[in-house]
Amino acid sequence: MLSNIGIPGLILILVLALIIFGPKKLPEIGRAFGQTLKEFKNSARDLTRDEDEPKDKPKNSLSKD
């Protein structure tokens, strides 16, 4: 989907973002977007790590005997 944008489309999007949000807000928006992507990436990594754990080990140490 994003491969169809091209350089002119990307420039147009950046110019529109600059007009809409202004030069003072763009760094804040970029920083927030970067932090969101970082958190999403960490969460996805944790989910895949949880699925890779062996099923043999009980996750709960409390057992009813």
Please sum up the structure shown.
This protein has 65 residues and is mostly helical. The chain has helices at residues 6-21, 26-52.
Uncertain spans, ≥5 residues at pLDDT below 50? none
Secondary-structure element string: HH
Radius of gyration over C-alpha positions, nearest whole angstrom:
22 Å
Roughly what percent helix?
55-70%
Class from secondary-structure proportions: mainly alpha
Number of separate helices: 2
The geometry reads as elongated
Largest sheet: none
Question: How many strands appear in the DSSP assignment?
Answer: 0
**Mean pLDDT rating:** 81
Distance between the termini: 56 Å
What proportion of the residues form beta strands (DSSP E)?
under 5%
Pfam family, one: TatA_B_E
Membrane topology: Single-pass membrane protein
Organism: Cytobacillus gottheilii
Function: Part of the twin-arginine translocation (Tat) system that transports large folded proteins containing a characteristic twin-arginine motif in their signal peptide across membranes. TatA could form the protein-conducting channel of the Tat system.
Topology:
Layout (H helix, E strand, L loop, with lengths): L5 H16 L4 H27 L13
Could you please describe the fold and organization of this structure?
InterPro entries: TatA/B/E, TatA/E. Forms a complex with TatC. The protein has 65 residues and is mostly helical. It is 66% helix and 0% strand. The protein contains two helices and no strands. The protein has helices spanning 6-21, 26-52. The longest helix has 27 residues, at 26-52. It is elongated. The relative contact order is 0.06. The mean pLDDT is 81.
